[in-house]
Amino acid sequence: MAHNEKPTALIMIFGATGDLANRKLFPSLYNLYAKGQLDKFAVVGVARRSLTNEEFQLRVKESVTEHGEAAANLDEFVSKFYYHSHDVTDSSSYIALGKLAEELDENYRLDGNRIFYLAMAPEFFGTIAEHLKKDKLTNVTGFKRLVIEKPFGHDLESAKVLNKQIRTAFSEDEIYRIDHYLGKEMVQNIEVIRFANAMFEPLWNNRYISNIQVTSSETLGVEERGRYYEKSGALRDMVQNHMLQMVSLLAMEPPIKLTTDEIRSEKVRVFRALRPIIGEEVNDYFVRGQYGQGSMNEKEVPAYRQEEMVDPDSNTETFVAGKLMIDNFRWAGVPFYIRTGKRMKAKSTKIVIQFKDIPMDLYYQREQTVNPNLLVIHIQPEEGITLHLNAKKSGQGTEATPVKLNYANKGIDGLNTPEAYEKLLYDSLRGDATNFTHWDEVALSWSFVDNISAVWENTNEHSFPNYESGSMGPEAADKLLKNDGFFWWPVTEIDVDNC
Ligand code: NAP
C-alpha cells in the first residue's frame, strides 16, 4: 500500500482495559484519525471486566485527553469503539465475538480486513490464536494480521513454542512482532544516515571505525513491574530485543532494495555473524549489575532488592553491559559495546560511533590533543545527530579545537515527533512489516542471549547490589572498555542540548 493510501480495517484489541491500550494504543489511533490517515475503521475492545460500549468509549475519550491532544472530532472517533466482555480462555465467547466482528465489518464496510492486536500477557497469545482460527474469526475476505507485544518468549525454547502456536492461525508475513524501538524516529533514521549519505557509508567499516557504543539508560527503577522483572532482568527485557535490534541496523550491509524482505534478510545476516559468547567467556564479554540504594534528584531511593514483589536475595540483573563482536569482513575487530540499566544517572538512548584516530597526529607533536571524530545518534529523550570534529580555534595560530555539528529534530521541526506506536500501528494497517521483527531475528537473538543467561542463572552474583542508584552502572562496565583502551562517552556531556 502506498504511503498516502488510507487503510481500512476492523481493529480488535485484546487487553483493551490495560495500561498499554490506555497509554499508547488509543492516543496513537486517535492521532492517525485526526491526521486523516485512517479511512474506514472500527475498534472492538476485549477484556474480562464488564463494560458497556458507552463506558468503554468514555475510557477511550479519557485516555486520548490525558495522553494525547484531543480535538473536536473526538466524539466521532470514539463512536467507532465497541466493547466485548470476554475471558480469552473461555471458548464459548469467541462465537459472539465473531458475530460482532461480522456485523461491524458489514456496517462499516471494512472489506473483511482484520487486525488482531494482543495487548495482553504473552501466555495468552497461543490460546487466542488457536481460538481465532477454530471459531473462524480469521476466516476473512480481506487481510488478517496479528500484532503482538514483547516479550516474545522467555528463551529460545519458549519462543519456539509460542511461535508454533500463533503460526497455526497466521503465516509469518501476517505476524507483526512489535519492538517499539523500531518505531522511534531516530532508530529509523539510522538507515537513512547510513545509506543516503556519501560521506558515511565509505567509512562504515573496520578500517575507519574504532568502536560503537549503544547506551539505553533509564532513571526509573523497577516500579510496579517487580513480578515480571524478577523473571526477566535487563538481559531479556532490553538486550534480546531493543539493543540487538539497534546493533543490527548499525551493522547490516546495504540492502539491494529498501524493501521489508531485503532489509530483514540483511539484519538476519548480522545476527548470524554475531560471535556466540559461551561459558567462561561470558565474564570476559559481559557485565551484570543490580542497583543499590542511592539518591536520584536529591531523593533517597531504595535498592532493587527492597522493591515490591522482589526477592530480598534476588540475583536478577537491572544492568547489562556487553561487548559484541560481529565476525564478518566489514566488522572484524570492531567492538560494539552495549549497556542498559535502570536507576542510572540519566535517561538516555544514544549511539556513539567513534572513528579511528588519523594516521599521523600532527597536533600531538605540538603537545595538543585532538579528539577522535564521533557521530552521535540521539534516540531519546532528545532526537538528533551530532558530528564531533576538530577545527581551528579562531584567532592567532593553528590550534585545534573540538566543534560539534548538530541536527536536533525537535528544534528544527518545533513539533513532537510521532510516538513510536502511532507509526507502528499505521505500518501494520498498511501491511508494511519492515519495522517489526521477523521470527529469524527473534530466534537468533534468543540463542545469543540464552548462552549468557545460562551462565548467569547458575552463578549467584555475590557483589549485588553493585552499583548505586543515580550512577552509570558498576565499575566493571568501565573496565570492559578500559581493557580495550576505550571509555564510555558520557551520555550527558554529549547531549544534543548541551552542544
Ligand atoms: P495490563 O495493564 O496488565 O493489561 C492486561 C489486559 O489484559 C487488561 O485489559 C486485562 O483486562 C486483560 N486481561 C487479562 N486477563 C484476561 C483474560 N483472561 N481474558 C481477557 N482479557 C484479559 O498489561 P499492559 O501493561 O497493558 O501490557 C500488555 C502487554 O503489552 C504485555 O505483554 C506487556 O508485556 C506488553 N507491553 C506493555 C507495555 C506498556 O507500556 N504497558 C510496553 C511494552 C510491552 P481485564 O482485567 O478486564 O480482563
From TrEMBL:
Every Glucose-6-phosphate dehydrogenase C-terminal domain range: 192-489
UniProt key word Oxidoreductase: yes
InterPro entries per UniProt: G6P_DH, G6P_DH_AS, G6P_DH_C, G6P_DH_NAD-bd, NAD(P)-bd_dom_sf
Glucose-6-phosphate dehydrogenase NAD-binding domain residues: 12-189
Pfam families assigned: G6PD_C (PF02781), G6PD_N (PF00479)
Active-site residues, record numbering mapped to chain: 242 (proton acceptor)
Keywords from the UniProt entry: Carbohydrate metabolism, Glucose metabolism, NADP, Oxidoreductase
UniProt: NADP(+) binding residues: 48, 87-88, 150
Reactions it catalyzes: D-glucose 6-phosphate + NADP(+) = 6-phospho-D-glucono-1,5-lactone + NADPH + H(+)
Documented EC number(s): 1.1.1.49
SUPFAM superfamilies: Glyceraldehyde-3-phosphate dehydrogenase-like, C-terminal domain (SSF55347), NAD(P)-binding Rossmann-fold domains (SSF51735)
Name of the top EC class for this enzyme: oxidoreductase
Pathway as given in its UniProt record: Carbohydrate degradation; pentose phosphate pathway; D-ribulose 5-phosphate from D-glucose 6-phosphate (oxidative stage): step 1/3
Domain of life from the UniProt record: Bacteria
Residues spanning the membrane: none
GO terms assigned for molecular function: glucose-6-phosphate dehydrogenase activity
Binding sites annotated in the UniProt record for substrate: 180, 184, 218, 237, 342, 347
UniProt record similarity statement: Belongs to the glucose-6-phosphate dehydrogenase family.
Functional note: Catalyzes the oxidation of glucose 6-phosphate to 6-phosphogluconolactone.
NCBIfam families to which the protein is assigned, alphabetical: PRK12853.1-3, zwf
Classification via PANTHER family: GLUCOSE-6-PHOSPHATE 1-DEHYDROGENASE (PTHR23429:SF0), GLUCOSE-6-PHOSPHATE 1-DEHYDROGENASE G6PD (PTHR23429)
Protein name (Swiss-Prot/TrEMBL): Glucose-6-phosphate 1-dehydrogenase
Species per Swiss-Prot/TrEMBL record: Mesobacillus stamsii
Gene: zwf
